[in-house]
Each structure stands twice: as C-alpha cells, then as structure tokens.
C-alpha cells in the first residue's frame, strides 16, 4: 500500500510549469465528470477589479480555465465557477467585493455545486482573509498575487477536499514562464515586464501586496512579444508598477530604454505602450528612445500625485514640484505632440488649501490630456495611515470637485486641439450603440468613432477627426 502511494506522489512533477500542466489535466477530469452528471458544459466567469496588471492576470486565469474545460461567460450569476480578481488600492474596491460576494452567496444556495474563488491584491492582506474565513465560509478557494501561476493546483486541491482552500504567500522571488493565457483582444495585449514594487510611497499598499520588484528576463519578454506579433497582435502594453526601473535587479542589468529598443525591432508589431512611469526614474535615455521610435505611442502616463513639494515629501515620492515640471518640459521638447496623463490624490494627510492649490497649479501648467483623480484612502499598514492631520471629509470632497472640474475643462480643450487632423487609429470594436460605426484607439489613447465595418477590427486606419466630444472624437476614415 505504502509503495503505491509513494509512486503516486512521484508522478507529480516538481518543476514548473510542468507541475501546473499536470494539475490542469487533473482538473479537466473533474470538470468532465461534473459536466457529464449535469449533462451540460460547465461555465466560468472571471471578474476583474483594479489595474491593467490585474487584467493581464485574469487573462492567465482564463487561459487555464479554458484548458480545464470551462466555457467562459461574462455573467457571474450564471456561472458554475466565479472568480473575483480583486484590487485593494483603495478601500472602496474592497467594499465592492464584499458586496458582490453577499449577492453571490444567494445564487450559490440555489446552485450548490457552484464554486467561488478569490485572488488578487486584496487576498494578500491578512485581515481580509481572516474576515473571509469567519464570515464568508461559502468561498471555495483563496489564493494571492505571488502564486497565481498555481491556480490549477489550488483548484485541484479544492476538487479533492470539498472544503475552503487557502494558499497565500507573503512574497516571492520567482517568475514562472510558459503557462497558458487567453487574450481578451486578438490584436492587442498586455505584457508583464516586471512584478512588484520597491518604492514605498507612503499612501500605497501595492509594495505590501505585490512584493519586491523583480524583472522578467528580456529574452522571455521578447519571445512572448514575437509570438504575439506572429499571432496578429499589433499593439502591446508593457506592464509594471514602475517600468522605468526595469532591469535593475537582473543578473545582467539592462535599462527600460534598452528593452524598448529591442521590442521596437519585432516585425509585425506596430505600436508600443507602457505603464506606469515613476517620474523619479524617467531617464534621458528613455526620452531619446521615445523621440526616435517609430512604434512607441506618443502618450505618457506620468502620475504626479500632488503638486505640493511638501506633500510629495510626505508621500515619499522623491521629486519636487519643480523637478516634475522640468521633466514635463524636457519630454515636450523632445516629443512635442506627446499626450500626458496622470494620477492625482486629493486629501493626503496634512494637505492644506495651499498644498492643494499647488496641485491645481501643476494641472494648469502641464495641461494633462486626462487625469485620474482619487480621494485619499487610508490603507492599514502603510505609513500614511498613522499620520496625524487626516483631512476632514467635506474639505476633501470640495477639493476633489474643484480639481475634477479643472481637469475636465483642460482635457476637453486639449482634445479639441486635434480637431481636423488626420491620425491613425487601431480599430478595437464595432460601436456598442451604433453598429454602423467602429471604435478605434488613437496613439494618444483617446477613442474615435467612425463609419466602418467589423472587418476593420485589429487594423490600423487613418481617420480624420471631425469633431471633438470632450474626451472622444467622431471621425471618418481617409485614404492613405
Ligand atoms: N488612496 C487614494 N489613491 C491611491 N492610489 C494609490 N494608493 C492610494 C490611496 N491609498 C492611486 C495613486 C496611484 C493609482 C493607481 O491609485 O494615484 O497612482
Ligand atoms: Fe493593481 Fe494595485 Fe489594485 Fe493590485 S492594488 S490590482 S496592483 S492597482
């Protein structure tokens, strides 16, 4: 008896990704059996919260689910397996997950073989997992950001054990390559170039939930993009919490600008984007690569967070208002038509009216093409959470409204400047409201709607921007 058991254990591969392919096969058997009992295919829905990094992770989960035999659907209340890929960057993201879990519990009561899985950044917070264990017993599996590649293994454990499976790692230095992944779009894709973050901005939970910074090997990145391009992908978005510090931790260090030069050479690839850039690490070398590149989109997301040097210091951002403005000036000199976007936090502890006006001043000076504005959210465990001088809610709300108005007015004025120009759009879809139109994305990341057909999806088309509608355009295709 002993002998057989040992043999069985020996058959499980210990190396990755082979081990996960083994568990994918195992899960496939379980899914086939349940599906035969129910006499219908099993369905799964992956619901993504948060950033592009999470969206990319969800594609990896979807790739594995499809291999296992699930049919993917969008509606969570109709799915046999629902996964929430969570975000915890602000408290309201957490609240939304608890709310939706409550609703899902009612569905699960009527559908007992339904599975509910939770993963993503929120799961890396111990108090969240405690709460789930106590009050959300109907959840079936919980895993974190560091071991997402183990999804099939965690699911197999759940199939075998019939009880809640929790697998969370505190941190990792490992990157597992070559797992399945399913793209949401055929013509564009996110590509992780690094994971984690070492910046420790004082308000931000990300370094605690995504771990230390580690870069993927450039050869793996290039190979992935070459395969994507061969598969018809025209545009890639290189993803990392701080892409400007790419490559510093590699055995053979390499800069982000050097990586971009390599990506540029890939045949068939037409557009390169990247996110997110930390101003403190944006090099002259990168600006030069952006200036000379034929493929890098003229769009830069450059989070400022605050315009007040005092607040920036308390945020541990490691640049001043003047340094930020100087950087913007340098980029605009090199790439005059660059579209700049940003993130801004309002109501950081001790922010005074004067500090806030410095932020408005930066907004007016830079004239962003768009900006994501956030109300400061206290994240337990971050240095800012215990700072004195939290700003009263009504004051924050008032500042937020004033900021939003300023940002929107400027953004629509900037948008209008391009009226009448001809620009290239990558067609993404048939327009949701009017099927005679298609929707394309311009290099500056804005959308244009113009008469077209679904055959144009995935193609780059020159479009005349006839009318600016504030933050998108109505246009018409023009002959090259
Ligand atoms: N409160 C509000 N906004 C935050 N962000 C990150 N942490 C917080 C927080 N605690 C914002 C930052 C960041 C974006 C992704 O989310 O602006 O750039
Ligand atoms: Fe993305 Fe940060 Fe939210 Fe995680 S916490 S999903 S890294 S924004």
Automatic annotation (TrEMBL):
Q: Which cofactor does it need?
A: [4Fe-4S] cluster
List localization entries.
Cytoplasm
**Cofactor stoichiometry and binding remark:** Binds 2 [4Fe-4S] clusters. One cluster is coordinated with 3 cysteines and an exchangeable S-adenosyl-L-methionine.
The superkingdom listed in its UniProt entry is Bacteria
The record's principal subcellular location, in a coarse class, is: cytoplasm
Q: E.C. number, please?
A: 2.8.4.3
Q: Where does [4Fe-4S] cluster 1 bind?
A: 51, 87, 121
Q: What are the protein's GO molecular function terms?
A: 4 iron, 4 sulfur cluster binding; metal ion binding; tRNA-2-methylthio-N(6)-dimethylallyladenosine(37) synthase activity
State the Gene3D superfamilies in the record: Methylthiotransferase, N-terminal domain, tm_1862 like domain
Binding residues annotated for [4Fe-4S] cluster 2, in chain numbering: 197, 201, 204
Start and end residues of each MTTase N-terminal domain: 42-160
Query: Is rRNA-binding included in the keywords of this UniProt record?
Result: no
Q: Which protein family is named in the record?
A: Belongs to the methylthiotransferase family. MiaB subfamily.
State what this protein does: Catalyzes the methylthiolation of N6-(dimethylallyl)adenosine (i(6)A), leading to the formation of 2-methylthio-N6-(dimethylallyl)adenosine (ms(2)i(6)A) at position 37 in tRNAs that read codons beginning with uridine.
Q: What PANTHER family has UniProt attached to this entry?
A: CDK5 REGULATORY SUBUNIT-ASSOCIATED PROTEIN 1, MITOCHONDRIAL TRNA METHYLTHIOTRANSFERASE CDK5RAP1
HAMAP family in the record: tRNA_metthiotr_MiaB
Q: What is this protein called?
A: tRNA-2-methylthio-N(6)-dimethylallyladenosine synthase
Origin species: Sellimonas catena
Q: Which gene encodes it?
A: miaB
């Amino acid at each position: 008896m002993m002998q057989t058991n040992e043999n069985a254990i020996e058959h499980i591969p210990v190396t990755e990704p082979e081990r996960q392919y083994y568990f994918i096969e195992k899960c496939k058997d379980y899914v086939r059996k349940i599906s035969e009992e129910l006499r219908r295919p099993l369905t799964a829905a992956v619901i993504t919260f948060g950033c592009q990094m999470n969206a990319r992770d969800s594609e990896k989960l979807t790739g594995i689910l499809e291999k296992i035999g699930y049919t993917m659907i969008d509606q969570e209340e109709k799915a046999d397996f629902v996964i929430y890929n969570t975000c915890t960057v602000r408290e309201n993201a957490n609240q939304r997950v608890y709310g939706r879990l409550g609703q899902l519990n009612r569905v699960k009561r009527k559908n007992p073989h339904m599975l509910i899985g939770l993963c993503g950044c929120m799961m890396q917070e111990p108090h969240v997992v405690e709460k789930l264990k106590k009050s959300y017993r109907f959840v079936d599996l919980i895993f974190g950001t560091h071991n997402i590649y183990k999804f099939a293994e965690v699911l197999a454990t759940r199939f075998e054990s019939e009880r809640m499976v929790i697998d969370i790692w505190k941190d990792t230095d490992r990157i597992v390559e070559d797992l399945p992944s399913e793209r949401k779009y055929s013509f564009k894709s996110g590509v992780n170039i690094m994971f984690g973050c070492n910046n420790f901005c004082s308000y931000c939970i990300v370094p605690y939930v995504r771990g230390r910074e580690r870069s993927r090997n450039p050869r793996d990145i290039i190979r992935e993009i070459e395969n994507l391009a061969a598969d018809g992908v025209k545009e890639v978005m290189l993803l990392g919490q701080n892409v400007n510090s790419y490559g510093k931790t590699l055995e053979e260090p390499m800069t982000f600008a050097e990586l971009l030069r390599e990506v540029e050479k890939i045949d068939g690839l037409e557009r390169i984007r990247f996110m997110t850039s930390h101003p403190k690490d944006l090099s002259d070398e990168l600006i030069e690569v952006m200036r000379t590149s034929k493929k890098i989109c003229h769009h830069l997301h450059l989070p400022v967070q605050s315009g007040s040097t005092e607040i920036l210091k308390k945020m541990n951002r490691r640049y001043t208002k003047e340094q930020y403005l100087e950087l913007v000036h340098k980029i605009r000199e090199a790439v005059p038509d660059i579209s700049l976007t940003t993130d801004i936090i309002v109501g950081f502890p001790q922010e005074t009216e004067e500090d806030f006006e410095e932020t408005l001043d930066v907004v007016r000076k830079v004239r962003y093409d768009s900006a994501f504005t956030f109300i400061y959210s206290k994240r337990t465990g971050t240095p800012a959470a215990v700072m004195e001088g939290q700003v009263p809610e009504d004051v924050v709300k008032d500042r937020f409204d004033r900021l939003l108005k300023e940002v929107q007015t400027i953004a629509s004025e900037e948008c209008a400047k391009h009226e009448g120009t001809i620009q290239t759009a990558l067609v993404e879809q048939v327009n949701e409201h009017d099927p005679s139109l298609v929707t394309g994305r311009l290099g500056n990341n804005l959308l244009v709607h113009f008469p077209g057909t679904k055959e144009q999806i995935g193609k780059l088309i020159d479009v005349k921007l006839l009318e600016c509608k504030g933050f998108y355009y109505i246009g018409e295709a023009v002959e090259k």
